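ok here's the first one, seq then struct tokens
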Amino acid sequence: LYKTELETLREQLRDKEKDANNLISNEHLEELHNAHNLKIAELERIIGDKMMQEKLLADANDQQDAKIAEQEKELEELRNLSKQLTELNNSLQDSLMRHS
């Protein structure tokens, strides 16, 4: 009788130990899961920051390209004006030469 009770108590003790080990394992897994989620959140934040930086750089590049295009247009207009002035100057010189 004592032997079977002793065996029963030992089995109950083993079951309790297993439960305790499972509980520790579950707590450990939960801690790992939480740490993993924090890492994911941090990586998502970093990725978001990088995407925002890329967008800001792309916007700045677009603005710079627009300024360059505007300056090239102005330069072309100045070249045309310079050409017109040169033609006008040559025409005036021709007129002066004819009248003198």
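and now the second one, same deal
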Amino acid sequence: MLDGQIDIRRRPGSIQPMRLPVAELPFYDAFTQWVGSCATGCRLRFSTDSTTVKLTATQHLLALPNDGERRGAYDLYVDGHLVARGWGEGGAEMNPRAA
């Protein structure tokens, strides 16, 4: 179902794709843990006959020095073709200088 992640963090009612092994997280600083929790490049793959797909995600944002917002893009591919792109809004913010 998930593709492109290193590991999966399991929590009640959710799973989180990780770019670092979950067992190694305590050995990393807060910023590296945060970067490892960003699901950039991970894919959710499935087959369905449905004509509607709903994705609920918790987004993490990087605080930029100019207070600009870096929104996450969520791309929908059907049979290998890009059919839609949605942009995330809001979410948890991380300032690497504060970590």
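notes on #2: The longest strand covers residues 81-87. The helical segments are 30-37.
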